[in-house]
Amino acid sequence: MPSLAMAAEGSADQGLPKLGLSPGEPQVRSATPSIPFGVSPAQSKEFVLDFHGYLLLPAELGMHERPTVTPPAGQCMQSGGTVFHTPPLMAQDLRSFEYTAVVPKPWVQLNFTYGNSTVSGTTVLAATTLGDAAGYYNIVEQFGVNDAFITVNATKYFHFPFQLHVGAYTGRYGAMGAYDAGRYATPLIARTNTIGETITTGYKLGEFFVVLEQGLGGQLGRPPVGLVPAGWNDFADANVGATLVNHAHLGLAYGGLARLGFHYLFAWTQDDLVKNGNVPNGRITVLGGDLNLTAGRAGHLYFGTAWTKASHAATVSGAIEILNARGGPELIANYLGKNSNGNGSLTTFGAQYDLSVSRLVFGELYTGKSADVLVSLFGVGTAVSSDDKDYNGVSKLKGGAEVTYLMMSWLGVSGRFDHVRLHGSDSKKAFSIFSPRLLFHTGWMNRDEIALQYSYFQSGSDIQVPMGYPPGSDTPANPDRHVFTLSGTFWW
User: Fold this and answer.
1) Nearest CA to 189 among 434, 382, 463?
2) Of 27, 111, 298, 328, which residue is least crowded by CB atoms under 10 Å?
3) How far apart are CA 199 and CA 209, in angstroms?
4) What are the tens digits of pLDDT across the range 209-256?
5) Where would I find the H helices in 263-414?
6) Extended strands (E) in 295-356
7) Domains of the chain: which residue ranges?
8) In angstroms, rounded to a whole number, what is the distance separating the alpha carbons of residues 129 and 126?
9) Peptide bond into 229 cis (omega under 30)
10) How far is CA 128 from the centre of its chain?
11) Which pLDDT tens digit goes with each residue over 425-456?
């Protein structure tokens, strides 16, 4: 697909540093897309078709000890013994701070782009479930056409880099990884889910490159008044209003070594159809900054920080996401508290450092076709200020490390450790995950991976998994202690 990561001679995106992930790029770990048909639209004067895909296919099994229960009349007492859960019971809700991405979830993505170096159209199909293996049909996990947008490269008309996206797509700012959203698969600053426009342009000053980006978008629809939350509509909240998001970004890059970004996002609703208009206008404002250092053999370092201010945010829809929490309602549920009236703020910071030991030792002599040790250190924290006294002053922190030894072209071993604290120093609301893995590939630089992973969860006494549909805290369950995963990953 034409993106800022795949520059073409004379195109708008040549040399333009990315201020976030380009539309259509997978959020989880992957390499820069290859070009199966030999010619990308961004590199062609003629109209051509380009096709990319990403498959992450995990089979998961959770194990725990059966608690002693009182059986129905006439049945024997059940006590002890091992129980199995698939999917596992884990404190790993994608839309809350507890999510670490250490245990993979299904993701299927197909990108189709048709066009040339001036104009192209992209459609992205995606799903987080697979029909043949689904225990029940959940329509909201079959995204269908997830993104569709037109890209116009007007460089030859303006004589400076100029790129325009128009359509429905996601914008992700604060990507902690070199090619993805980082080990936690979470944009640190914010994510937008809108239909609208994004303009990216830039200007080169010697070794420096200044990048400007602006976007404005809304959503195709809002939950109508009287809509009953249900599974088929993803338990939509009819109390959110029509939401618009305006965002602007400034980047300063030096060669291919460093990139400094400043981000501003403002989401607001002023809708008279919500509760007969008897609600205040909702606002979510985000100010952020991040630094990417790509120091060649010394690895890749990311550091970012963001300040999120919410004002009567209950009516702000999922057109904006903060730490994967969609809109004001989930920001309130996961961070600000139900008695906050949607008023409060988050001060967030995060860092990730990735290093190839072979590249560090051998520099440009290392081609990726021999043994290597990969080291990654990562962490995210946020401090909450809220009008709800039970949430005000709460800090949340998660961090970890991963070491991978690629010993042969077909075999590697890896180990990862994560620790998550959901309520400051309260160990009852904290958990750790130890995850060794065996990795199998068909070649040193091939785009496939089969992974066999075991994860041991050590959870505090107050860590429980919400159950029910939708999941609720009134029916919690103890999390599994042992989780086994067999996953296949392939991208092209």
Assistant:
1) 382
2) 298
3) 16
4) 999 999 999 999 888 888 888 888 888 888 899 999 999 999 999 988
5) 327-331, 357-362
6) 300-311, 320-322, 325-326, 344-356
7) 60-95+183-491
8) 9
9) no
10) 13
11) 999 999 999 999 999 999 988 889 999 999 99
Contacts of 228 (CB under 8 A, 6+ apart): none
Question: Using alpha carbons only, how large is the chain's radius of gyration in Å?
Answer: 23
SS3 category, 387? coil
Query: In terms of Cα–Cα distance, which of 118, 122, 110, 153 is closest to 49?
Result: 122
80-89 long-range CB contacts below 8 Å, 24 or more apart?
85/61, 85/480, 86/59, 86/60, 86/61, 86/62, 87/60, 87/62, 88/60, 88/61, 88/62, 88/480, 88/483, 89/62, 89/64, 89/465, 89/477, 89/478, 89/479, 89/480
Q: What is the CATH number of domain 60-95+183-491?
A: 2.40.170
| Tokens of residue 294, six digits | 């790509």
CA pair distance 89, 466, nearest whole angstrom: 9
CA pseudo-torsion sign 122, 126, 131, 136? negative
pLDDT for 374-396, tens place per residue? 999 999 999 999 999 999 999 99
CB 484 within 8 A of CB 454: yes
Q: Which residues pair with 303 in a beta bridge?
A: 291, 351
**SS3 category, 86:** coil
* Residues 454-478 as b or e (16 or more Cβ within 10 Å = b): ebebebbeebbbbeeeeeeeeebee
Of 171, 170, 173, 172, nearest to 289 by C-alpha is 173
Residues 6+ apart with CB under 8 A from 91: 98, 420, 431, 457, 459, 463, 464, 465, 479
Measured CA distances, 470 to 222, 340, 404, 474 (Å) = 20, 22, 37, 11
